Automatic annotation (TrEMBL):
It comes from the Eukaryota. It comes from Trepomonas sp. PC1. SUPFAM superfamilies: L domain-like. This is Leucine rich repeats-containing protein. Gene3D superfamilies: Ribonuclease Inhibitor.
Amino acid sequence: SFLQNKNEIKYIRLPLIPKLKLNMNIKVQSDINEAQNCELIDRMPTIEELQQFKYNKQNKFQQQNLFKCSNIHNTPYQIRGLIMTKVKAVGSHQFSQQKLLLFALCPSILTIEPYAFLNCISMRRFVAKKLTTIKDSAFSGCMSLTEITVQNVTCIERNVFQFCHSLIELSFNNLEVLPESVFDFCKAFKQIICPKLKTLHENAFTRCNQVQITSHMQEGEEKEIMITRKNRIFFQEVLVDEFHERKRILKSINEQRQLIQILTKSRKTYQEIRKRILK
């Protein structure tokens, strides 16, 4: 009875239970004594196999719960990964409340309608490089969202990133207007890079800690925002599965190490040549 209405459970291991009978679609590890109405598997998936935040065709556990489509009719109730190759618009509430969804890869998406991904609390990565329009509350409540491609977005409506507690930085290359409450209650948000920004609603960053806006707007500082033209902030990313800042630092260190080695060899060569000349 403790499993009643636990639709989010997909795998379970109960080796000490003598007998198990389920009326649910749950996979059970085969070390149980007796099981009815359930699918037995040889091993449980590892945490690494389950926590995939981007597409991996080698991961069979991800493939079992992956929604791939060229249209978005008949969306499954529970999905962990979303790939839409030809869809150009996501309808209102289309994927709202998909609480197991981890990532979305949408290379052709242009428009996201209101509440399309409302309360997708596990989604961490949303990749849609052609995206231009994000409407009211499209990603509201996506508390785990850390990466979303918004470089080409030109229109964004109110409450789009409301309650996105894991967002730290976003970069808009073409956006000119930040509307009301677009980043409401984004407690971790630190920086927005928006060179073409012209209009900023006074309540765009309500209930946030101080946010820096890198833009060509007039520089200034208020309670919740600081506008600057040059001083971009660099910081360690939220732990997902890629670390751009760390890679950049390691690359710089390696370049410095190689330069030191070259200079050391050059110095030794110079000293040897100098000794020969003096002899």
